[in-house]
Amino acid sequence: MCGLVAIARTYANAPVPSGAISRMREAIAHRGPDDRGEWFGDGIQLGHQRLSIVDVERPPQPWLRGSLSLVFNGEIYNYKTLKKELESVGEIFSTDCDTEVLAALFSRYGNKAFSMIDGMFSCIIYDDSNGNIVAARDRFGIKPLYIADDENGFRLFSSELAGIKAFSSRRWEHSNTGIEQFLTLGYLVEPETGYKGIRQLLPGTVETYRVGCSSVDTDTFWSINEAMQPGKEISVDDGQELLRSAVLRQSVADVPLGSFLSGGLDSGVITSILSESREGNVDAFSAGFNEAGFDEIPVARLAAQNMGIRHHERYFDHTLLERTRDMVDIYGGAFADNASIPTFEVSKLASKHVKVLLSGDGADELFFGYRNHRALFMESAIKSAMPSWFRTNVLRWVAEYYPNSPSMPRFLRAKSTLRALSMGLAEGYCSAMSVTSRDVLNKIYHKDFVSSLQGYTTEKRFAEIASLAENRDPMKVMQYLDFKTYLPGSVLTKVDRATMRAGVEARVPFLDNALSQAVLSQPSHLNLGFGQHKTQLRQWSSPWLPASSRARVKKSFTSPLDSWFRALQYPRFCRIIMSDSLIDSNIFDVDSLQRLMDEHYRGEANHGTTLWSIAVLSRALT
Predict the structure, then answer these.
(1) CA distance 133 to 126
(2) Which spans in 2-109 are helix H?
(3) Rounded to an integer, what distance in angstroms lies between the CA atom of residue 162 and that of residue 180?
(4) How deeply is 622 buried, as exposed, middle or buried, from its count of CB atoms within 10 A (0-12, 13-18, 19+)?
(5) What whole-number distance in Å separates Cα of residue 527 and Cα of residue 368?
(6) Which residues, 6 or more positions from 598, have their beta carbon under 8 angstroms from its beta carbon?
(7) Rounded to an integer, what distance in angstroms lies between the CA atom of residue 265 and that of residue 545?
(8) Which is nearest to 248 in space by CA: 351, 142, 358, 350?
(9) In Å, how far are 199, 253, 485 from 258, measured between CA atoms?
(10) Cβ contact 205:122 at 8 Å
(11) How far apart are CA 537 and CA 534, in angstroms?
(12) How many CA atoms lie within 13 A of 267 on its CB side?
């Protein structure tokens, strides 16, 4: 696990600023504190920071092989198999590391090499023989890769936004569409980064450039549409072997290894398989909150005791609200997953014991594990029994005027349900995944900001993405959206930046090639239906988890923002959310935003996730 940066000339004679590659590399040094390296070519420069996990004594990157120079971030889990295959056709290796295997693989197969890799990665490869530069990113976007075209004739690459920003003193302008996405979702839908001129390379994509040229050739080496083509139903025995093999493949390391543990199904089965393979010699790490209903540490503690492994805990309280600066520093801009700082702090705790952590991320997207999946399934079933004109006209009108108050009896709080039933699939999915509703945003946005968007909304972006899904089963379209939006934009972003800032590597066995490919090809009804969800994973987990753990309903890892904000003294509450930069930005109608804040503080409505997003944005704008 590492961090990479690169500078490539796009104009014929543009001189690279002195020290630029070093500044960029140093800005992401936390991603690889064990070693560093730089390489200078004609019109291209590469930089690298290394976190040593496998073959820890190998030379630092950039890696040179023949006419190739490359920097690589990530892990290739099948590199030993690939190495044997390459040796059988005459390739010779001097190390036992995946970076050298990648160089040899690309030298022989070109862009086809990336489809042969089982792992998480981003890389930049320069071929001096033809002047080509290749950038690639793994199929799910586990590892990031930011790309920017500088106004002075350079294409910049970095594992984090901080590396791009360190190239020069340029102040990158915020993207209004990015701000709209962020305030709706709390994260950004790739390739959006929140800054004009900076984008993320999309997962499963290869781009090819030439030194001194601004053109780009784009190729896709993996497609989720192809992965979702119907396959055979996975038996319980086969599913258990897929699970076990995925964990074992991702447990290879020459340094201590542990796991995140919430006490739920996903992290529980990963940790149990890991413990079984290491005879209990495992460290597990958990986070909890000092508020009833949000604390899962007792469940995680019991799970660890049953497995006979070492367990480490960290509790959090409302003082996390003071750490918006840390959020912006770690994520390079606006990012509002309220479990981000706990994940970072638990990763720091873990760094005292291990260098690699296994995570249960990806399971909910594969096996339909989110509460929103169940809600959208029910809504889809109801919608199918209604004429479309009734949904889009009558129900939308009723939802518009139905009262909305948390003081109403629960059985009368139907506004959100009525609105959801009136929406199309993509709009309904976006609404379900949002941290702030469209109604609330419409109330607090400044008219000038709305005008600047020129009709753009995040819901429309989701509809564009959903239209590309080839499997039109509504639940498979929802899964397609998960893998295109929430998984790379929020889940994987949170874990990558938090763990790498703490100097540890996170791995995601559920996104193993074989396991994910097999499950994505399954019809949705095998895991989601009336009264059931995550059905296959619950069945497959039986050798490793007791029935009580397998039957447990998922509880999201989230903090009690609503009550935390109300626990603050009112002046501090206002200062955390508001700033001069926020007020001057004309994103919000300040009076409307103040009314929203007061409404929350008085307990008349719950806007905790909205206020947290605004507080983070307020800091990002300064």
Answers:
(1) 4
(2) 20-27, 79-88, 98-109
(3) 22
(4) exposed
(5) 6
(6) none
(7) 8
(8) 358
(9) 33, 11, 28
(10) no
(11) 6
(12) 28
Predicted pLDDT at 52: 63
How far lies 171's CA from each of 113, 213, 296, 391, 487, in Å?
A: 37, 24, 42, 46, 29
Q: Is 211 left (phi over 0), alpha (psi -120 to 50) or beta?
A: beta
Asked if 186 and 435 count as a contact pair (C-beta separation under 8 A), the reply is yes
Helix, strand, coil percent values for the chain (each to nearest 5): 45, 15, 35
What pLDDT does residue 408 have?
Answer: 43
Q: Cα separation of 457 and 434, whole Å?
A: 12
Distance from C-alpha of 414 to C-alpha of 417, rounded to nearest angstrom = 5
Interatomic CA distance for residues 534 and 360, integer angstroms:
14
Q: Over the stretch 203-223, which tens digit does the pLDDT of each residue have?
A: 999 999 998 888 899 999 999
* DSSP tally for the chain: helices H, then strands E: 30, 19
Write out pLDDT tens, residues 39-53: 999 899 999 998 766
| Closest by Cα among 142, 488, 609, 148 to 617 | 609
- Amino acid letter, 292: A
**Structure confidence by residue, pLDDT tens digits, 90-120:** 999 988 889 999 999 999 999 999 999 999 9
Q: Is residue 121 within a helix (H) or strand (E), and if so which, with residue range?
A: strand 119-127
The answer to whether the CB of 391 falls within 8 A of the CB of 496 is: no
- What does the DSSP 8-state code read for residue 152? T
Contact predicate 191/199, CB 8 Å: yes
Q: Specify the pairing of strand 2-9 against strand 35-40.
A: unpaired
Pair 145, 398: CB distance under 8 Å: no
Q: Between the CA of residue 396 and those of 392, 440, 569, what are the distances in Å?
A: 6, 16, 39
| Neighbour-count burial of 419, counting CB atoms closer than 10 A to its CB (0-12 exposed, 13-18 middle, 19+ buried) | buried
DSSP 73: E
Strands 154-158 and 2-9 turn out to be: antiparallel
Pairing of strands 68-76, 119-127: antiparallel
Question: Could you tell me if 103 and 138 are in contact, meaning their C-beta atoms sit under 8 angstroms apart?
Answer: no
Q: What is the DSSP letter of 482?
A: I
Strand ranges, E, within 361-520: 505-507
CA distance 460 to 484: 14
Identity (one letter) of the amino acid at 10? T
How many C-beta neighbours within 10 Å does residue 523 have? 15
Q: Which residues of the chain have pLDDT under 70?
A: 1, 12, 52-59, 383-422, 554-558
Q: Do the Cβ atoms of 188 and 182 come closer than 8 Å?
A: yes
User: CA–CA separation, 215 vs 396, rounded Å?
Assistant: 46
Q: What is the DSSP string of 331-393?
A: HSS----TTHHHHHHHHHHHHTT-SEEE--TTHHHHHT-SHHHHHHHHHHHHHTTS-HHIIII
